[in-house]
């Protein structure tokens, strides 16, 4: 074994390329996504994301197993296995828990720790910072909004119980991606909006769940008391999933709502929540 | 480029409160102390140097760029360590420093190796894979410093870098800052309210008071306002005073203490010492003490008018140590 020791590493100047705001957005997006999933963190930080993912994927795994194990003569897969749009009703709870966790996890600690000041002292601006955060949350949410129906599609296809032609397969694939990303986009904006209002993750998470529940219960009660059915466009628990039904060409649980109204309401909630986050950060004082 | 930062007529108000009220600023190469009482406008100025605040009036250039229009470009080439504890406790030091290098535009591979180097330079080579939350205050300050220079900035802005450190940690931190400004060749602006700290590490000082620059320049130039030799004699100073006056030296006498002003030029200073020596020999005067005295930074600070009303906010090191 050598006795050699490094006494002075010297200081290296850096003359290479700098990636500017693009590199900063990429790094912050990656870092935030890893953080939201609890990766490179303690065991406890991984528990909730892992549990949510298990709950989201478990039904798909069971349905794929049924399609693979039971021949068509014994069991009609279409009668037993839900459609891709209907599948979300099995995993709504997992999605809501995931949404409530991810947004606050991605935004709150930076303000609480003071990391926001360090980020804004880099090539990032407030807008590019928020863009990086949104780019991190959408794909993380897609793990539970796109992944499970995608697993169902691939599993059923391999079990010979999937779409009948390659064209049909592509159509379902596009619908899965559009549906999953629509849910992710809407809930990304809502969870980030809640997270922008408080530095405490737990408060923001509770706020997201409360917002979804309160809008759901309040609008349902009001409609049952004779209020306009358009009040359901304020139901955040319902809106994204109702839109998904329309993507699959079905009317869903609220057929009286026009598809264009659902699209507009989802877009309004997404943009409105996004605007709230942007305004909140525009006014935030980092150094003074 | 000889000037790292230039500002002219810089004005910034927070509501009705003026933070900067027409500051004129020229920061050259090396290590510059930004000195001022709490509320003097130091942190506002740092925010403006980073392009985080838009001036209400005046012009500002950092590394030749206008931070209000080229903020991202400026921030890519500037490192910043804020005063407050700004580190996530559950991240490993190396991951954090590497991530901040990437955020400042370094490619991943370069960021990984430079993060290790930076942590070695601040004395945390062996500790680099520990979560920041398990580190001491001194170690966290070092991680913050490593994060600030890991991307090889042209200019480093340090806001109260010794905040919360014990005397030993503070000495080590000041030595590190000095090393960064000299060996590493990175220009540094250190914002501080600790006079002795600035005096120890800085080549130049900018003194802010009430939103304007009350005094600025190299430490030597600022302190040359009072450059004297103080001579304390044993017995009667009259013969020595007479001999000095005969030699044409202006002086002040206070009991047994004679104060002789020194001229600006080195030859004049040598001549004044020669005159003192010859006068002491010719009058057979015994000297108890002969000491050259320049103005302390505290005296410069007070003379600049930045003092009395803010005096409570400024502290010399010994006071801070005794408080902590």
Relevant terms:
heterodimer, A: mainly alpha, B: 324 residues, alpha/beta, Alpha-Beta Plaits, 2 domains, 6-stranded mixed β-sheet
Structure description:
The complex is a heterodimer of chains A (288) and B (324). Chain A is an all-alpha fold and 288 residues long. Chain A has one domain (20-283). Chain A is built from 11 helices and no strands. In chain A, helix 4 (88-113) runs antiparallel to helix 6 (126-145), helix 4 (88-113) packs parallel to helix 8 (166-196) and helix 8 packs antiparallel against helix 10 (239-247). Chain A is globular and about 75 Å long. The mean pLDDT of chain A is 90. Chain B is α/β, with parallel strands linked by helices and 324 residues long. Chain B has 2 domains: 3-222, 3-Layer(aba) Sandwich (Rossmann fold), CATH 3.40.50.300; 227-294, Alpha-Beta Plaits (2-Layer Sandwich), CATH 3.30.70. In chain B, the strands form 3 sheets. A 6-stranded mixed sheet of chain B has the order 5-6-7-3-8-9, with helices on both faces. The longest helix of chain B is centred in the C-terminal third of the chain and has 17 residues, at 266-282. Chain B is elongated. Chain B starts with a strand and ends with a helix. The relative contact order of chain B is 0.14. Chain A binds chain B through residues 9, 11-14, 16-21, 23-24, 26-28, 31, 40-42, 45, 109, 113-115, 117-125, 286-288, and chain B through 14, 19, 43-44, 46-47, 50, 52-53, 71-73, 75-76, 78, 80, 82, 84-92, 95, 99-100, 102-107, 110, 114, 117, 120-121, 147, 151-152, 183-185.
């Amino acid at each position: 074994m050598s006795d050699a020791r490094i006494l002075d590493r010297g200081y290296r100047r850096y003359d290479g390329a700098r990636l500017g705001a693009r590199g900063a957005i990429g790094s912050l997006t990656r870092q935030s996504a890893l953080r939201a999933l609890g990766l490179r963190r303690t065991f406890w930080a991984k528990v909730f994301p892992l549990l949510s993912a298990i709950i989201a994927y478990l039904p798909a795994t069971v349905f794929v197993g049924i399609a693979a194990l039971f021949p068509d003569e014994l069991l009609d897969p279409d009668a037993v296995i839900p459609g891709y749009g209907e599948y979300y009703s099995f995993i709504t709870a997992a999605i809501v828990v995931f949404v409530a966790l991810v947004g606050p996890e991605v935004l709150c600690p930076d303000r609480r720790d003071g990391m926001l000041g360090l980020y804004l002292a880099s090539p990032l601006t407030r807008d590019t910072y928020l863009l990086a955060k949104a780019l991190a949350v959408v794909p993380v949410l897609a793990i539970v909004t796109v992944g499970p129906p995608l697993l169902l599609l691939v599993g059923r296809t391999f079990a010979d119980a999937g779409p009948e032609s390659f064209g049909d397969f592509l159509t379902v694939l596009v619908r899965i991606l559009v549906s999953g990303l629509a849910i992710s986009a809407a809930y990304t904006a809502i969870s980030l909006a809640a997270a922008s209002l408080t530095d405490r993750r737990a408060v923001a998470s509770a706020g997201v769940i409360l917002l979804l529940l309160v809008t759901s219960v309040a609008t349902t009660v009001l409609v049952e008391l004779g209020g306009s059915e358009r009040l359901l466009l304020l139901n955040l628990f319902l809106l994204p999933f109702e839109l998904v039904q329309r993507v699959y060409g079905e009317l869903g649980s609220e057929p009286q709502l026009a598809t264009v109204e659902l699209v507009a309401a989802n877009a309004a909630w997404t943009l409105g929540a996004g605007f709230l986050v942007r305004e909140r950060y525009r006014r935030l004082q980092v150094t003074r | 480029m000889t000037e790292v930062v230039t500002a002219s007529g810089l004005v910034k108000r927070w509501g009705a409160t003026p933070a900067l009220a027409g500051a004129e600023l020229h920061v050259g190469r090396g290590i510059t102390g930004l000195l001022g009482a709490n509320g003097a406008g130091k942190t506002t100025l740092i925010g403006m140097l980073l392009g985080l605040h838009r001036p209400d009036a005046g012009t500002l250039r950092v590394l030749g760029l206008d931070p209000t229009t080229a903020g991202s470009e400026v921030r890519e080439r500037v490192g910043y360590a804020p005063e407050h504890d700004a580190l996530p406790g559950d991240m490993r030091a190396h991951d954090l420093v590497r991530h901040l290098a990437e955020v400042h535009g370094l490619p991943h591979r370069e960021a990984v190796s430079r993060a290790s180097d930076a942590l070695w330079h601040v004395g945390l080579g062996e500790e680099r894979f520990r979560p920041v939350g398990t580190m001491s205050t001194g170690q966290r300050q070092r991680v913050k410093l490593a994060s600030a220079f890991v991307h090889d900035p042209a200019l480093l802005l340090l806001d109260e870098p010794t905040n919360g450190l014990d005397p030993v940690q503070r000495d080590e931190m000041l030595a590190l800052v000095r090393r960064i400004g000299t060996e590493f060749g990175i220009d540094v602006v250190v914002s501080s309210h600790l006079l002795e700290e600035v005096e120890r590490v800085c080549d130049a000082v900018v003194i802010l008071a009430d939103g304007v620059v009350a005094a600025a320049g190299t430490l030597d130039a600022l302190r040359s306002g009072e450059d004297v030799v103080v001579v304390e004699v044993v017995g009667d100073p009259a013969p020595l005073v007479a001999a000095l006056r005969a030699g044409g030296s202006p002086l002040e006498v206070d009991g047994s203490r004679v104060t002789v002003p020194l001229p600006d030029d080195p030859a004049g200073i040598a001549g004044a010492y020669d005159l003192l020596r010859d006068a002491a020999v010719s009058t057979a005067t015994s000297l108890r003490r002969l000491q050259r005295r320049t103005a302390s930074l505290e005296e410069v600070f007070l003379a600049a008018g930045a003092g009395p009303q803010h005096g409570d906010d400024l502290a010399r090191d010994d006071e801070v140590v005794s408080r902590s």
